[in-house]
């Protein structure tokens, strides 16, 4: 990977880390906005997966679908494949929790689980890059 590509990959990972920090901040709040926690977990995972694709010179789909992105990175980081079902659930947080018309409010357990999955994926990906 050349220096320019490495810098772009690092930018993706920094943005993912910002989402994870946002989650940490929210989980320490007196009132925890679980929809926001879940949204940022989805965003962090999306950015981590897209960073892997950039690092490996694979075209990035304009999608928020984590399962689609998982399919795209499966040959690069096959250790992520067991997360498919969880990523399917977390993908819903990319749009579904952002607008009042769906009236979906994740539980605190769901929010913490989404955060835990994001951290696990971050660890796996960073160990491979």
Helix residue percentage: 55-70%
Cα separation of the termini: 10 Å
Question: Which regions are unreliable across 5 or more consecutive residues at pLDDT < 50?
Answer: none
CATH architectural arrangement: Up-down Bundle
Roughly how many Å is the radius of gyration? 14 Å
Structure, described:
This protein is mostly helical. Helix content is 65%, strand content 0%. The chain has 5 helices and no strands.
Strand and helix layout:
Layout: H1 3-27, H2 34-55, H3 66-73, H4 84-91, H5 108-128
Helix pairs in contact: 1-2, 2-3, 2-5
For this entry, give a set of tags:
mainly alpha, 129 residues, 0% strand
Write a compact overview of the structure shown.
The chain is mainly α and 129 residues long. 65% of the residues lie in helices and 0% in strands.
